[in-house]
Amino acid sequence: xxxxxxxxxxxxxxxxxxxxxxxxxxxxxxxxxxxxxxxxxxxxxxxxxxxxxxxxxxxxxxxxxxxxxxxxxxxxxxxxxxxxxxxxxxxxxxxxxxxxxxxxxxxxxxxxxxxxxxxxxxxxxxxxx
Length: 129
Known about the structure:
The chain is α/β, with parallel strands linked by helices.
């Protein structure tokens, strides 16, 4: 599976873990998400109205997190109704993959590829070319 391929590639640069939370009531989802976000993490929410970044801008953001010795970067993709407002408001970065809406699995794939691309940019590897 292509997604597993990118997860493996990301694993060369950083510990990687995917946690899936069942969609449901916003309060319940917010509580479940909060429980799965380690202390002192940097949190990125994927949102249609978030900030659009180029691959190099995302790489720079990841690089700053590395330089700041951030232990965990958490990327959150919302369900059918998006992310709970409290989670969105508290994010370190509200990012958009596109002005278009993607199915969840496709958003995961695009995000994984961009995370891998970001790490390869930071390391000066040829993948980005």
